[in-house]
Each structure stands twice: as C-alpha cells, then as structure tokens.
Amino acid sequence: MTNTRVHAMRAIMRKDMTAVRRSKGVILPMLLVPTLLLLVLPLLISLAAVSQQSVDIGSMLKALPDAATRDILSHPKREHLVLLVDGYLLAPLFLIVPLMLASVLAADAFAGEKERKTLETLLHVPMPERDLFYAKVLSAFLPALAVSWIGFSVFAVVVNITAWPVMHRIFVPTKLWAVVIFWVAPAVATLGLGVMVRVSARVGTTQEANQLGGAVILPLIFLAVIQTVSLLIATLPIALAVGAGVWVLAIWLTVRGARRFTRDRMAATV
C-alpha cells in the first residue's frame, strides 16, 4: 500500500474520530457503558463479595461447569465468593463491551455520513473503494479496542485492590484472562464490525442501523457470554484456537464486505 493511500485512510479515520467526539449520541454510550460495566459494577460487586465471605455459594457453583467449580473449590473457602464473582460472573463483560462499542461506532460509519449530509463529499474522495471501507472499519475498531483495554486495566486494578483483604495477592489477570482480552475480544469486536458496517452502508440513519444490526448483534452478545466463561476454564491452546476461529470468520466477513462495497451502491441509498 502506497503512502498516499495510507495518508488518505488516516485522513478519513481522523475525520470520523472527530465526528464521534462531537456526537453526544455516540460518545456517551462509549464512556458510560464501559464505566458502568467495567468500573462501577465490579467495584460494588467486589466490595459486596469481600464483605460476605461466609455466604454459601454452593447453589451458584452448580450453575458453573465442573472445571470452574473445581478451580474455585481448590482455593481456601474465604476466597470462593471473590473468585466466583470476579473470576467468572463478571468475565462476560469483557467480550460484551468491545462488541457493543464497535457496533455503536460502526452504525455511524456510513449512516452517520448520510445524516450529516457529508456522504456525497466522502464518495468523491480520490481513494480506492476498499481503502474507504477499511478506513471506516478501523475508525470504529481502534476506539472500541482502546476503551475496552483501558476499561480492563481499570477493572483489574479495582478488583485486586478491593479483594486484597481476602486474597492477599494479585489474581487478575491470569494467562487465560489475557487471551480473552487481547486475542478473543478484538476478534469478537471485528466480527460485530463486519456486520454493522455493511448494515450502516445500506440504511439511511444510525437509528435504523442500530435497530437492524441489533437483530444480529444480540445473538452475538449471547454467544459471547457463554464463550467467555468456557474460555476461562479451557486450556491455553484451546482458548487460542477459539480466538483464531473467530478471527477467521471476522476477517472473512470484513473482506467480503469490502469486495461488495461500491460507491454506486452507496449513492443509491442516499
């Protein structure tokens, strides 16, 4: 890829990120959702878990796979509730958050241009159609990933500090946590983007994009919830393999979307 094409893509990405910062309808979910899910909720639940160490969690453990139950029971009893809450029950948030953020940003990718009456100008930018499509994907992917990783860092600090009186050690993240956050979560976000950017290109407003894309994103969120706990009790090679499978599907969807994307089709939807 030539420097000219790279500069053109960067210009599109900078423009999109500037538009996002100025849009309250986009920036508020980007900040509020991670703050609530990755800071406020873990803080409250962790404090409650630490203060209720003697609670019998036998019924809750029955809902977990046997491997997770054995892992928790292998530690001292005072640590059981903290490990259950911070190690497993809150885990699905870390695939839901990047998927939600990427979807919100992707919904604005082309539909937002139509609402702001800037699509015609965008379509006349002298750059290949695939570069334009990929620039839009990256404009949603990079902020969603950055917010998710920062949110996880805050989460790790919060739960380790609040649980220190019980755990007396740093227990988050583990190697499997790292795989989920830095390997699987970006793949899941890309998978959502592969769907939402194409939806955004076909509808007239971001509200329509969110409504139509929600029919696909909600099942993905449900699968993400199931997958997260499963990965945290899997072996490292299995977790890496699952992430690779999600990446293959996500890249296939994105490349296929780029091949089908044309300026003529976009202009016809205005």
Explained architecture:
With 270 residues, the chain is mainly α. It has one domain (3-268). The protein contains 13 helices and no strands. 41% of the residues are buried.
Report the radius of gyration as a whole number of Å. 21 Å
Number of E-state strands = 0
Distance between the termini: 30 Å
Summed over residues and divided by their number, the pLDDT gives a mean of 81
Total domains: 1
Helix tally?
Answer: 13
Query: How would you classify the helix and strand content by structural class?
Result: mainly alpha
Mind describing the biggest β-sheet? Answer: none
In what range is the share of β-strand residues?
Answer: under 5%
Broad shape: elongated
- List segments where confidence is low: pLDDT < 50 over at least 5 consecutive residues: none
- Provide the helix percentage: over 70%
